[in-house]
Amino acid sequence: MTSSYSVEVADxxxxxxxxTAVDSISFQVCDGEIFxxxxxxxxxxxxxxxxxCGLLLPTSGRGSVEGFDITSQSDEIKRHIGYMSQKFSxxxxxxxxxxxxxxxxxxxxxxxxxxxxxxxxxxxxxxxxHYERMTRDIPLGWKQRLALTSSLLHQPKVLFLDEPTGGxxxxxxxxxxxxxxxxAETGTTVFVTTHYMDEAEYCNRLSIMHExxxxxxxxxxxxxxxxxxxxxxxxxxxxxxxxxxxxx
Amino acid sequence: MKPRLFVILQKEFVHIxxxxxxxxxxxxxxxxxxxxxxxxxxFDIKEIRLGLLDQDGSPASRAFVRDLTSSGYFQIxxxxxxxxxxxHGMLERAFIAALIIPEDFGRRLKTESMIPIQLLVDGSNxxxxxxxxxxxxxxxxxxxxxxxxxxxxxxxxxxxxxxYNPDLKSSHFIVPGxxxxxxxxxxxxxxxxxxxxxRETGTLExxxxxxxxxxxxxAGKLAPYILLALVDSAVVIVFSMLVxxxxxxGSAPFLLLASLAYVYCALSIGVFIxxxxxxxxxxxxxxxxxxxxxxxxxxxxxxxxASLPVVLQAVTYLVPARYFLIIIRHVMLxxxxxxxxIAPLLFLVAFGTVVMASSVRRFKINLED
Lengths: 248, 369
Description:
The complex is a heterodimer.
Chain A lengths: L6 E10 L2 E11 L4 E6 L5 H9 L6 E6 L2 E2 L4 H7 E4 L11 H11 L4 H15 L14 H13 L5 E5 L7 H16 L3 E6 L2 H6 L2 E6 L2 E6 L1 H8 L4 H16 L1
Parallel strand pairs in A: 3-8, 3-9, 6-7, 7-8
Antiparallel strand pairs in A: 1-2, 1-4, 4-5, 9-10
Chain B lengths: L3 H15 L1 H21 L7 E7 L4 H12 L3 E6 L4 H8 L5 E5 L3 H7 L6 E4 L4 H22 L22 H31 L2 H6 L5 H31 L7 H23 L5 H18 L12 H7 L3 H15 L3 H29 L3
Helix pairs in contact in B: 1-9, 2-7, 2-9, 7-9, 7-10, 7-11, 7-13, 9-10, 10-11, 10-13, 10-14, 13-14
């Protein structure tokens, strides 16, 4: 599948036994776009991200990231993407700098190449002052920045963020989103899942998921206009209520 | 560019060195065990406490008791005046066996061919009880010979000479077993825990979205433990040679080869457990039950396999430590080489390959959910 989109998905489905986690979804994400996935827990957001990152194979349907097919070319995809999960997957018993060195290392960055990459990523996230601290001792907001820096070292074209602000205080969250905007301005595509309504407003475009299906896609402004609501929260609540009524 | 396998390996070493628990398991525990088994625990029992009821009190009975205690295996901890004292003494653990010499012992000794003396033994410790009985039997046999050197002969007698471990030192026999347990601990227990930890904390996922290959990941995680297990075994062996004079008669390179086969088995179990366990606690428990305990109890390390119940004897055929113990004891104590140890060596390789193959497949599938 050749594609001019950064991420393109058609009829993507993933089943676990009887349970359909992702049900025939289709969407496109442009270069440099901040694309949000909004949905309740269990709506299928994480499953979708895992399929796009090559951690999970789709049951059926197609998808591509940076023009590479997600079922057959996941090795190429992995070179071009960054991934940050809600767990902030870091090693508590390593220092901040050691964590960075490790994550740089598994992307083949060492020596001068690593130092240059780190300089660039860390200036951006402001992590430098914490290098020698043990990761278990730094505040959650800094762990989040460390996780972000780790996933940016190899300068990915697409950054997947799976609920990147879970448990982080509101100020750190706002700071974090400032970084995401700056990143998108440099041409990086950002694919982010969230269940925070205020975060949904920050996205360029948004897709609302419910029980494995995409129930609406559009920019926050479009969605609010289409459903005649003042906030995304109202749009979301209305949409989900309607879906639940339909089922009943 | 640094190879990615090396990046993983380097990180693993940092984890090990910063985790006091693993350091204790790796370095302190084996040395502690050597000392425990070398000094504290011996399987020969000396100075068995004896209650004595000498109903005879003749010079002959006194001489008998004197000779019995001078052997060093028995000591008289209480002299009893009647049978009622026996029960009481055993209950308060004043002695574990009571010797009763009958009234006319001295007189009958001159005339009769057989004089029974009674030994009452506390069976609550079956091991000690058996040893006490056997000691007394052999003492009496010897005594009979001495008393009747001219008149009576003993047509058959055993002249034992023990080879390879002439003094039957338990350290000679324990240390090789300890090496087997230590290697199993490090390679199965620590590796399964460290692999499961990566999944539990989500770092495995983070690594798998990178271009790294699963082989680089697993090999990088395991390599430090292979090195650690071999170094640790060498420490245990050298230490026991220096302190307890355990001999090393065979070929070190051959033992290294056999150790690698055994380590391979242990790693395969570690990977197998980590492919199924969800949490570190589960992995730890599973590793204890499937590796540590069998290596300890069902390998012939301390308890002879032949004395186990038949069902358990059958189980021991599936315990890698059993085979490695045969190899290492033969190499260290007897100086035997590959030619006579090919069977246990082949078993280790086969065991490792079967378990590793099934768990690697399972590991891949597991990354998916």
